[in-house]
TrEMBL record:
GO terms for biological process: translation. The keyword Ribonucleoprotein applies. Belongs to the universal ribosomal protein uS9 family. SUPFAM superfamilies: Ribosomal protein S5 domain 2-like (SSF54211). One of its GO terms (cellular component) is mitochondrial small ribosomal subunit. This is Small ribosomal subunit protein uS9m. It comes from Ogataea polymorpha. Gene3D superfamilies: 3.30.230.10. Pfam families: Ribosomal_S9 (PF00380). It comes from the Eukaryota. GO terms for molecular function: RNA binding; structural constituent of ribosome. Keywords: Ribonucleoprotein, Ribosomal protein.
Length: 291
């Protein structure tokens, strides 16, 4: 009794291979027996093999062939130049294609944001290689995905004064939001139609509102009309402060570096104070019992 498998070749060839003979003690190998087909069948299959269309790339059946080809080339370069020294400082000033521009280069390829992030991560790693050790083909690939800073600066929308000479800006803090209109004037500040010293009774809130003006020494050069809503007085004061700082930059872009260093152009990301261990809430302590 024998056990085995049967394969049928393209040209009508039948191959029967027996693995072992289970009788007679030790198993032994049986030589395969070949039965060839006719010459016409073999010739036909050879002609079909010549006429068979071979895809230009193995990724032709992938969901996104363009992106797969790009990543395959980049990963090959990663493996090729993995031993070269690199530093993250070499790629800090590089500006890469945006997600929309990358899809446009791929003729509307079906690319996901996660795939683009992986591509950008690979490009940053290749760009961090020492420029003196880069090969011409690596430079060519990196330049294909880079965008000149002049083009990016032109695309960046620059805020300007409106037709009435006002700088309009918004700000926020927690649940509070504010919108301000800043024009050149004598230094008057109105919040929701009231002088800001009447709207904000707390001296600390008024000081925070005036901080951007004091930093650029322009307390008596601009009139400010602000609209604030939501949250408490401190949140509204911080929202107005941020909006005023942004409006001052619209009037004079040279103020941007000064206000950035002072922290006036950053929105406070804190929303709700966290609960602490041993407390009932953020600051509330449990009732103290003597015994």
């Amino acid at each position: 009794m024998f056990t085995g498998q049967v394969w049928k070749a393209r040209a009508g060839l039948t191959l029967r291979v027996f693995a072992r003979q289970l009788t007679g003690g030790k198993p032994r190998t049986i030589e395969p027996v070949f039965h060839y087909g006719s010459d016409s069948v073999i010739e036909r299959d050879m002609q079909l093999e010549k006429l068979r269309l071979i895809p230009p790339s193995p990724t032709v059946f992938a969901r996104n062939p363009y992106h797969e080809d790009v990543m395959e080339r980049l990963l090959d370069m990663m493996n090729k130049y993995a031993s070269l020294p690199y530093s993250k400082k070499n790629s800090e000033k590089s500006v890469w294609l945006s997600f929309e521009d990358y899809k446009r280069k791929g003729n509307g390829a079906k690319c996901k944001q996660a795939e683009y992030n992986k591509l950008k991560q690979t490009l940053v790693r290749l760009d961090s290689i020492d420029p003196q050790l880069r090969s011409p083909d690596l430079e060519e690939v990196l330049d294909f995905f880079k965008v000149s800073k002049t083009v990016r600066d032109v695309e960046k929308k620059i805020k300007e004064l409106d037709s009435k000479g006002r700088a309009v800006a918004t700000g926020g803090r927690k649940d509070s939001s504010a919108k301000v209109y800043v024009v050149e004037g004598e230094g008057q500040i109105l919040v929701n139609g009231l002088p800001f010293d009447e709207k904000f009774k707390n001296l600390k809130d008024r000081t925070r509102i005036l901080q951007p003006l004091q930093i650029v020494e322009s307390e008596t050069k601009y009139n400010i009309f602000a609209l604030s809503r939501g949250g408490g007085s401190t949140g509204q004061a911080d929202a107005v402060r941020l909006a005023i700082a942004r409006a001052l930059v619209i009037h004079n872009p040279l103020f941007e570096d000064i206000l950035l260093k002072a922290g006036c152009l950053y929105r406070d990301p804190r929303s709700v104070e966290r609960k602490k261990p041993g407390k009932l809430k953020a600051r509330k302590s449990p009732t103290w019992v003597k015994r």
